Amino acid sequence: MKIAISGKGGVGKTTLASLLAMVYAEAGYKVIAIDANPDANLALALGIPLEVAEQITPIIELQDLIYERTGAKPGTIGGTFKLNPRVDDIPDRFSTERSGIKLLVMGTIKGPLAGCVCPESAMLKALLMHLILRRDEVVILDMDAGVEHLGRGTAQGVDAFVIVVEPGQRSLQTARAVKRLSQGLGITRCYGVGFKTKSEADRQFIRDNLPELPILGFIDYDEGIAQADAQGLNVYEAVPQVAQSVKGVSDKLEKLLSKEP
Ligand SMILES: Nc1ncnc2c1ncn2[C@@H]1O[C@H](COP(=O)(O)OP(=O)(O)OP(=O)(O)O)[C@@H](O)[C@H]1O
Ligand SMILES: [Mg+2]
């Protein structure tokens, strides 16, 4: 199972990524959670202590490794380098483990190299392709609202593209835009999860405004989630009613996927 999570800033993507990773890990699956955000904080959401999280070097910053694998020094544009560097050993060597979940922090390419065809981007693309297309583990990908991390081939290996929405026009607009982008990549299995809803009216608002997106369920607004965040706790372990809600989400997902051709 390969799940990519997207949506507007601050809606709850990282929270959902941590929750789904926990559901599958608890069910006995091996799980790889990938943090593909510039502002990486999935480690904390999984309950990895701050001191440990701060020691994680994003893959993109492993300069010697990138040089060794691509044949070119990171930070250079142009020149020749391998577009398909070896990456199969990276998930095991460079992940941080917590409760049966292997966390990989990708890092992002910033500044003049953003969007470049450079050794760093070749490394990230190859790694994502490997994780999505070649690994047997459950893979949960915490993304931002863009889909640029995913090449077409990689995107089509994703079983479910999950868009997090909250009851507000801005997050709905982002959801529609993300859905269009993902369709452009050939992704057909796109679903929504409502977050921070406070009433049945909120939930209905989301359903009514996104008729094109099957909704897997809702993670209602819960003080416990905010408190777990403040204390650096794993929400799945700290807030039992939320763990229950996310199991509903994953059950619905399994059900819908089993019906897909
Ligand atoms: N259902 C909820 N109830 C209460 N607070 C929530 C809920 N879901 C998320 N939050 C809080 O909202 C904030 C943003 O959540 P989160 O970091 O998961 O969003 P995100 O989409 O990953 O954000 P970003 O775009 O910055 O990566 C966090 O402080 C989180 O604890
Ligand atoms: Mg996030």
Describe what you observe in this structure.
The mean pLDDT is 93. Strand 7, helix 9 (200-209) and strand 8 form a beta-alpha-beta unit. This protein has helices at residues 13-26, 42-45, 50-53, 63-70, 90-93, 119-133, 152-156, 169-184, 200-209, 223-231, 235-238, 240-259, and strands spanning 2-7, 31-35, 96-98, 101-105, 138-142, 160-165, 190-195, 215-219. The chain has an 8-stranded mixed β-sheet, sandwiched between helices. It is of the alpha/beta class and 261 residues long. Helices cover 43% and strands 16% of the residues. The protein has one domain (2-259): P-loop containing nucleotide triphosphate hydrolases (Rossmann fold), CATH 3.40.50.300. It contains 12 helices and 8 strands. The chain binds adenosine-5'-triphosphate and magnesium ion. Magnesium ion is lined by residues 13-14, 37, 41.
Secondary structure class reads: alpha/beta
> What is the class in the CATH system?
Alpha Beta
Shape: globular
Give helix and strand order, one letter per element, not per position: EHEHHHHEEHEHEHEHEHHH
Number of strands: 8
CATH topology annotation: Rossmann fold
Strand order of the largest sheet: 3-4-2-5-1-6-7-8
Our count of helices gives 12
Architecture, CATH level 2? 3-Layer(aba) Sandwich
Helix content: 40-55%
Are there runs of 5+ residues with pLDDT below 50, and where? none
N/C terminus separation: 15 Å
Tally of domains = 1
> Kindly state the mean pLDDT as a whole number?
93
As a percent range, the share of strand residues is 15-25%
Task: Please give the oligomerization state of what you see.
Answer: single chain
Largest sheet: number of strands, sense, barrel closure: 8 strands, mixed
> Over all CA atoms, what is the radius of gyration?
18 Å
Instruction: Name the ligand types.
Output: adenosine-5'-triphosphate, magnesium ion
User: What is the CATH superfamily classification?
Assistant: P-loop containing nucleotide triphosphate hydrolases
